[in-house]
Every structure is written in structure tokens, then in C-alpha cells.
Amino acid sequence: MIINKNSPLPIYYQLESHIKGLIEQGALSPGDTIPSEREYAETYQISRMTVRQAINSLVNEGLLYRKKGSGTFVSERKIEQPLQGLTSFTEDMKKRGMSPSSSLLQFEVVPATSFIANQLGIRDGDSVYEIKRIRLADNVPMALETNYLSESLVKGLSEEIVQASIYSYIEENLGFQITRADQLIEATKASKEEAKLLQIPKDHPMLFIQRNTYLSDGTPLELVFSRYRGDRYKFFVEMER
Ligand code: GLP
Known about the structure:
By secondary structure, this protein is an alpha+beta fold. It folds into 2 domains: 11-74, Arc Repressor Mutant, subunit A (Orthogonal Bundle), CATH 1.10.10; 79-236, Chorismate lyase-like (Chorismate lyase, 3-Layer(aba) Sandwich). Helices cover 29% and strands 34% of the residues. The strands form 3 sheets. The chain has a 6-stranded antiparallel sheet. A hairpin with a 2-residue loop joins strand 5 (127-137) and strand 6 (140-150). InterPro entries: Bact_HTH_transcr_reg, Chorismate_lyase_/UTRA_dom_sf, CP_lyase_PhnF, Tscrpt_reg_HTH_GntR, UTRA, WH-like_DNA-bd_sf, WH_DNA-bd_sf.
């Protein structure tokens, strides 16, 4: 029996675990619709409120999503991104057998604000590339990314290059060694504009990441602001003590 009313475990939690189990075993696949609140309530003789609580919890975890007027569906699996290695989006997706691409929103050379200049170790007003891209995996928008790089350091960057991989250009064409980065991760939600670009609802959970990357001699290479979809990403780090 799936629901045991005599169990000390709350009923909503039992239903939640049951649905989670079906997703993990593959009995429910991404895109599948799940039964309605009413159907669950009737099948297990429990209240619709309890069903709603279980489903809300799975929606909040990102395992299910609701579509107005058509029901509740199983989400795509999240990408588990290790935090240890310093990799590029292109490398990450290829490693997973997915096809990376970028939709270029902006490619400009602008004067550095004092914040950007400070982060990149250059003077206020020095020329920096400001590059805004939607990063896609198998044509699905995953993240929005804005990169700042000094124009005099990263010579010859072009629209064509940034639509492929910035890191491979820097390493293979400029011969620089990308060695280390600092990353800051914060929870945020999608603005109206971000939601439109990523094809997600406004206020959708997102992970905001600031990355400062450095070359082998310690020169700051890039300042990057990324916004990853919270329903498609989870970050993983191994810790020792
Ligand atoms: C990831 C990182 C960015 C980095 C980018 C380079 O997305 N979060 O900080 O700039 O990779 O990716 P690519 O070499 O594919 O342009």
C-alpha cells in the first residue's frame, strides 16, 4: 500500500515520496503528466489539500511543474554541475553528450566602470568587451551569461568566436593558461526580461553566479555574471574533513 494512514509519517510526505520514487525509477519520465489532485484524492482516499501539499513540495523542488490549464508535468532532470573543476559551458555540455550553443544578445566594447575595472585589475574607462549570451544545451536555454574581458588582454575576440567558446579561443588561439577562479553563488528569481529570454515563468528560481577567472600569472581574465535556471541545475561539491 502506498499510503499508510497509521504511519507516523505525514500523509503528504508519503505521497510525495511515492511520486519521487516513480520519477527516480523512470516510471514517470520528463514531460509526462501526473494524475490530477482529484484523482489522487479519490484513489488514496485522502484530502485534496494533502495532495496539493505533496505536489507543491515537488514543484518547489523542481521535480514537477504546473502548466496553467493543462496540468502538472514531470520536469527535465537537473544537470548536476561539479564545482571543483574550472570548466567552460561548452566543455560541460559536451561531456554530457549534449550539444552546446549560444544565442548572442550583445557584443560590444565599452569603457569599464570602476567596479569592473577593479575586478579586472585595469583602469577606470579602459576598454572591455561586454558579451551577453543565452547558453543553450540541445537548443534548450539553460543560462544567461554576461562576460567582461579586457580588450587589450584578450585581443581579437569576435562575434563568431563568442558564439562558440571563449575559453577555447583564449587557450588555443591566444595560448593563455586559464588557471583558477573564484565563484560566488546566490539564490535569485527571474526578472520579466530574463524569464522571456530563458522561456520560463517570471519569478522562477534561479542561481546567480559571479565568477572571477585568473591566468597562470595571476592576471584577472574575466568577470562573469551568470544566471542559471534553478529547475535545471544543481551544484555539487565534495568536502573533506
Ligand atoms: C561557463 C562559466 C563562465 C565562462 C564560460 C565560458 O559558463 N560560468 O564563467 O565564461 O563557461 O564558456 P565558453 O568557453 O563556452 O564560452
